[in-house]
Structures are given as structure tokens and as C-alpha cells.
């Protein structure tokens, strides 16, 4: 009977913790999911590539400050408790996300737009830096002995479900609005909706009890008076922090962001896949792949955390380039047989009605069902005056795939999601078990958020830069060059983890 009560109780803990964490991840990922649109709203439109890179850099900024959030909120969590700390992070994240949806565009307020976006993005990063450590610690401290991998893996699913829900909300918003409506104001809807989700999560979380392990430590007077000093000023504890970072969290971070973010950016900006189709494909792969977080979390309870995580890193190192080569070939027109081609011309005005453009559209159909649309847009008059010479305003290519290619691309993304579940499913339990209760929130949050926030969060911007630079110098395999970043980081983390992480270390009590 006691076991049943215990199981029922922990499911309540999982539900309350997971819902709040899921919403925070949703808030955080909306920005990345809409990065292509955001680049045209908050940054100068005269250089689309620079605007997109600026958006990715702003997206990455939220990850860069996550370690500072981990330190600040981790300290609070070890001093005053897990529950109240991640209540604060929830409200901070929700408020920042809502406000991003309210910011006027670059055309309306100039450089204030990207500046405000950056500030709110930094607040999001700080909030997430405190949220994850609190949720993982809270669940782990409720979990039965020997089952931490299984129970904490449910928290791990929230990040992927957060991205999945962000994609679903975006697709539904696009479905109910015209393309013009979505471009003008509809992209704000997913940001604004987050305030309702946060409110529901707040109502649930405020009725949660504090972690039993923390309550026991507090009652016995064993909580830390200076978590930062005990975590990082103690050489013995610092050794474990560094090993957790470089032997696990660093590799986990780049595998995670390659599969969920670089793949999405790659489909839209390199493969030129239609945005809705790319989002749908990623969403389907996430839906089928997410249960494996729990599978590998439970497996780590039986086999140990180390080799489950390292297997995901090793597979990524060995197979990323073949996977992305296969993805590129799916939409590469050079490898396809063209069966139909047509060309149309029309004229269009700018939204302000001051400029006139000539648009040339080329539509191609290939034998495998792939369709390709090219738009070449040139400015021909400004404010009623002719323009001397052609001023190019837009070159846009959009690809749509069907049948076997569609299924093949889902499978290639799904394989990357499996790598994520291998490295991410066990890592919460791995990090929690290294550190004692009194400094656990602080100690486990920092390596996790440096690994994910710095090494993982910089991946979209660094990889896009590497690929863009390789294209500029004429490298025919430019589309694969961005992968060197996650491959090298994963390889280094694999070597360190294989050599220095051991089963006794994971199970050791440092208190």
C-alpha cells in the first residue's frame, strides 16, 4: 500500500514539475522556431543573411546567460528551497516571452527593437538557468532509490515536447491566418499565448510541497549557508563539476541542439524546404522520438548512466555527415530529373505602396514528385520614380517534397532524435547523483547550463557561420561544414567521459 501511495505521489510531482518546465521550454523555443520570421521584424531587412545571423546570435544570447541563471537561482534553491525558486523562474520566463510578442518592429522603432528583444531574451535565459536544475532536483529527491533515471527522464521529455508544442501552435496559427496576416501580426500570437499557459502552471505549482530531502536537511540544520563557495571553492567538489561538464553535459548539449535546432535551420535555409513542411517533419520525428527519453532513462538505472550517454555522442560523431549529406540530396535539384517547368511574371507593390517590384517566378516539377519554386524580385520604381539599373530585392527558393522523400527525411530526423534521447534521458539523474543535497541545485545546474547554454546554445550561430563562410569561399560541400562544431565537441566529451567517468563516481555521496 505504501508503494502505491508513493507512486501516486511522485506522479503528482512529475505532473506539476513537467507542466511548468514544458511551458518554460515552449516559451524559450518559440523564438528559435520563428527565427526566420523574427529576422525580418526586429533587424534591418536590407541584408537578409546578416539579419538571420543576428537573430541566431540573439537566440544564442539566451543560452549564454543560462549559467548565470544557474548560479543565481541555484544558490536561492539551495538556501530557501526548490519550490519557491522555480516559481520565480516560471513567472520571469512567461513575462519575458509575452513582452517579445508586444515589441514594435524595426521599421517602427529602429534599433530599439533588437535591443529590447535582446534584453528579454537574456531574461529568458536567466529564468531557464534556474528552472531546469530546480525541476530535475525536485523530482530526483522524490524518486525511489534505484529509479532516478526513470523518473527524471520524464522531466527530460518536457524540452522536446516544448519544442513540439511550439511548432504545433505556429502551424495552427498559420493554418487559421493568411500568409500576409501571419507575416504582419500573426507571428506574435504564439508569444502572447504563453501568458495563459504560465498562469495555469502557476496555479498548479503553488500547491506543491517542498522536496522531502531538502525539508529533512533543513530540519536537521544541514542546508548550506554558502552554496557557491561549497560547490566551486572546494577543490574536491569542483573536480566533479568540471568532469560533469566536459565528460557529459558539453557533448549532450551539442547533440541535443544539432538534432532539434540545426536540423530545422538546415531544412529551411540549406535544403530550402517549405517552412510549414520542415516544421511538420520535425514535429512528427519529435512525437515518435520523445518516448525514448523514458526508455533510455530506465535503461540507465540498470546499465549505468555513462555508456548510455556516451553511445549517443559516439553515434553522432560517426554518422552526422552521412545523415546530413542524405538530407541535402533529398532536395538537391542536380540529382533529379525535371519533367515540367513554367515561368510567370507579375508586378507587386511594397506594403507601404511606395515601391514597385517586378517578380519573376519559375516553377519546376521533378520525376520524384519534388516541386521547386524560384522567385526573383527586382525593384523597378521607388515612390513613383524609375530606378536606374536593376536593384535586386529578393531571390527566394522554396522546395516541397512528397512520398518516399517525405518519409525518408522524417526518418533521418528521427535518428537524430534517438541520439538526443540517449544523451539527454539519463543526464538529470547523472548530475543529481554526483552532488549532496545541500549544494545539489547549485552544483548540478552550472555544468548542465554551460554544456547546453554555451556549447549547445552557440551551435546554430557557429554552425551557420561555418557553412556560410565555406559557401563564400566556394566549397562544394559547404552544407556539411557546420557539422564540424558538434562533431568535434562530441568527440572531446566522449573521450573525457570514457576515460574519467566511472560507476563509483556517479553513485558517490560527497556529503
Molecular structure report:
It is found in: Cell membrane. This is MFS transporter. It is a multi-pass membrane protein. Helix content is 72%, strand content 10%. With 511 residues, it is of the alpha+beta class. It folds into two domains: 2-332 and 403-507, MFS general substrate transporter like domains (Growth Hormone, Chain: A, Up-down Bundle), CATH 1.20.1250; 334-400. A four-stranded antiparallel sheet has the order 1-2-3-4, with no helix packed on it. The longest helix is centred in the middle third of the chain and has 35 residues, at 235-269.
Would you identify the regions where 5 or more consecutive residues have pLDDT less than 50?
1-5, 506-511
Whole-Å distance between the termini?
32 Å
In the CATH scheme, the class of the largest domain would be Mainly Alpha
Count of beta strands: 4
Q: If helices are DSSP runs of H or I spanning 4 or more residues, what is the number of helices?
A: 23
Q: Give the CA-based shape.
A: globular
Corresponding CATH superfamily of the largest domain:
MFS general substrate transporter like domains
Radius of gyration: 24 Å
The CATH topology of the largest domain is given as Growth Hormone, Chain: A
What is the structural class?
alpha+beta
Q: Any idea how many domains?
A: 2
Question: What portion of residues is helical?
Answer: over 70%
Order of helices and strands: HHHHHHHHHHHHHHHHEEEEHHHHHHH
Amino acid at each position: 500500500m505504501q508503494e502505491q501511495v508513493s507512486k501516486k505521489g511522485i506522479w503528482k510531482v512529475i505532473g506539476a514539475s513537467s507542466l511548468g518546465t514544458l511551458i518554460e521550454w515552449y516559451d524559450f523555443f518559440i523564438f528559435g522556431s520563428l527565427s526566420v520570421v523574427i529576422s525580418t521584424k526586429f533587424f534591418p531587412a536590407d541584408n537578409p543573411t546578416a539579419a538571420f545571423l543576428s537573430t541566431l546570435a540573439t537566440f544564442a544570447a539566451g543560452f549564454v546567460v543560462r549559467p548565470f541563471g544557474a548560479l543565481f537561482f541555484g544558490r536561492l534553491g539551495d538556501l530557501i528551497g526548490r519550490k519557491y525558486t522555480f516559481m520565480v523562474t516560471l513567472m520571469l520566463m512567461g513575462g519575458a516571452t509575452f513582452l517579445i510578442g508586444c515589441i514594435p518592429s524595426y521599421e517602427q522603432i529602429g534599433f530599439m527593437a533588437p535591443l529590447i528583444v535582446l534584453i528579454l531574451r537574456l531574461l529568458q535565459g536567466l529564468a531557464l538557468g534556474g528552472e531546469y536544475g530546480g525541476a530535475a532536483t525536485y523530482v530526483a529527491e522524490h524518486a525511489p532509490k534505484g529509479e532516478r533515471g526513470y523518473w527524471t527522464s520524464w522531466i527530460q521529455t518536457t524540452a522536446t515536447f516544448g519544442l513540439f508544442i511550439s511548432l504545433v501552435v505556429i502551424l495552427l496559427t498559420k493554418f487559421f491566418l493568411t500568409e500576409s496576416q501571419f507575416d504582419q501580426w500573426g507571428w506574435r500570437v504564439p508569444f502572447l499565448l504563453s501568458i495563459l499557459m504560465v498562469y495555469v502552471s502557476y496555479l498548479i505549482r503553488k500547491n506543491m510541497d517542498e522536496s522531502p530531502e531538502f525539508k529533512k536537511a533543513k530540519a536537521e540544520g544541514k542546508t548550506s549557508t554558502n552554496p557557491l563557495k561549497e560547490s566551486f571553492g572546494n577543490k574536491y567538489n569542483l573536480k566533479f563539476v568540471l568532469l560533469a561538464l566536459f565528460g557529459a553535459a558539453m557533448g549532450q548539449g551539442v547533440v541535443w541542439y544539432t538534432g532539434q535546432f540545426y536540423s530545422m535551420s538546415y531544412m529551411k535555409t540549406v535544403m530550402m524546404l517549405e517552412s510549414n513542411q520542415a516544421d511538420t517533419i520535425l514535429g512528427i520525428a519529435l512525437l515518435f522520438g520523445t518516448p525514448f527519453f523514458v526508455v533510455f532513462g530506465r535503461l540507465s538505472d540498470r546499465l549505468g548512466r555513462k555508456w548510455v550517454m556516451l553511445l549517443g555522442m559516439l553515434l553522432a560523431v560517426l554518422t552526422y555527415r552521412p545523415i546530413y549529406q542524405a538530407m541535402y540530396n533529398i532536395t538537391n535539384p542536380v540529382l533529379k530529373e525535371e519533367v515540367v517547368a513554367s515561368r510567370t511574371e507579375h508586378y507587386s507593390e511594397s506594403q507601404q505602396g511606395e515601391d514597385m517590384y517586378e517578380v519573376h517566378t519559375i516553377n519546376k516539377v521533378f520525376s520524384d514528385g519534388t516541386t521547386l519554386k524560384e522567385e526573383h524580385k527586382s525593384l523597378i520604381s521607388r515612390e513613383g520614380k524609375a530606378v536606374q539599373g536593376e536593384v535586386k530585392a529578393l531571390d527566394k527558393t522554396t522546395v516541397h517534397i512528397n512520398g518516399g522523400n517525405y518519409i525518408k527525411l522524417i526518418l533521418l530526423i528521427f535518428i537524430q532524435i534517438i541520439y538526443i534521447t540517449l544523451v539527454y534521458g539519463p543526464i538529470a539523474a547523472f548530475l543529481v547523483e554526483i552532488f549532496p543535497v545541500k549544494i545539489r541545485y547549485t552544483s548540478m545546474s552550472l555544468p548542465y547550463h554551460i554544456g547546453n547554454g554555451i556549447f549547445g546554445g552557440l551551435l546554430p550561430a557557429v554552425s551557420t557561420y561555418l557553412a556560410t563562410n565555406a559557401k563564400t569561399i566556394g566549397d562544394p560541400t559547404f552544407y556539411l561544414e557546420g557539422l564540424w562544431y558538434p562533431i568535434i565537441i562530441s568527440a572531446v566529451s566522449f573521450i573525457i567521459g570514457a576515460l574519467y567517468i566511472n560507476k563509483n563516481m556517479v553513485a558517490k555521496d560527497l556529503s
